[in-house]
Amino acid sequence: MARYIASKCKQCRREGEKLYLKGDRCYSPKCAFERRTYAPGMHGQKKVFRRKVSDYGLQLREKQKARRIYGVLEAQFRKYFDSALKHKGMTGANLLQTLERRLDNVVYRLGFATSRQQARQLVLHGHFAVNGRRARVPSLLVKSSDTISICENCRKKPYFKDLSKALEHVATPEWLAIDAATMTGRVLTVPSREQIDVPLREQLVVEYYSR
């Protein structure tokens, strides 16, 4: 399975903003973006000869930012777009709804992980169950009324022992519900665009693929 293994801080620097790809580290002084806000590479600090970004460049950057936030490679991201295009409603909103319903994103949103990358790893290791059945596929799309829980044999692991206390302070989105005592989450409904707090201009992504 292909995956991005290079520095995630370079991704934030390339997009010119924090994408919060490394969880708690992004909120600490150790965050590389705080020390080097310019783009990576030998020409990253050169601003004198930087030309105005074209419409295509803006569309490309927004598409790349969406991919990096959700940790999706190009081929899979294009499949999500093609699927969103076939459904009724706004294509951009449909795309974001699909990305939000990925199991690794839901695990992150519920507070079981501090980043989507960590959530992806936890899912791959088989720590979570959907509707009582163990799930090991991060791209699994959850539906309304689905229940996400920690597998019984995983609750004794050091990572999950004190997690219930931390979950009490997690602000979950309106379309999700979390029971901190039982460490169980539930999908209340499909999220609307207003409930997705991701700083993306999805219309630019639609324009990029519609060229």
Notes on the protein architecture:
Helix content is about 40%, strand content about 10%. It is an alpha+beta fold and about 210 residues long. Strand 1 (about 130) and strand 2 form a beta hairpin. Helix 3 crosses helix 10 (about 200-210).
A few lines on this structure:
The chain is of the alpha+beta class and 211 residues long.
Q: What is the topological layout?
A:
Elements: H1 8-15, H2 32-35, H3 55-70, H4 74-86, H5 91-100, H6 103-109, H7 116-124, E1 128-130, E2 133-135, E3 147-150, H8 158-161, H9 163-167, E4 176-179, E5 184-187, H10 202-209
Antiparallel strand pairs: 1-2, 1-3, 3-5, 4-5
Helix pairs in contact: 3-10, 4-5, 5-10, 6-7
Strand order of the largest sheet: 2-1-3-5-4
String of helices and strands: HHHHHHHEEEHHEEH
Strand content: 5-15%
> Would you tell me which CATH topology of the largest domain applies?
Ribosomal Protein S4 Delta 41, Chain A, domain 1
Number of helices in the DSSP assignment:
10
Look at the structure and give the CATH class of the largest domain: Mainly Alpha
Estimated radius of gyration: 18 Å
Contiguous low-pLDDT stretches (5 residues minimum) are none
The second-level CATH architecture of the largest domain is: Orthogonal Bundle
Main pleated sheet: 5 strands, antiparallel
Per DSSP E runs of 2 or more residues, the count of β-strands stands at: 5
Give the CA-based shape: globular
Can you identify the CATH superfamily of the largest domain?
Ribosomal protein S4/S9, N-terminal domain
Give the termini distance in whole angstroms: 29 Å
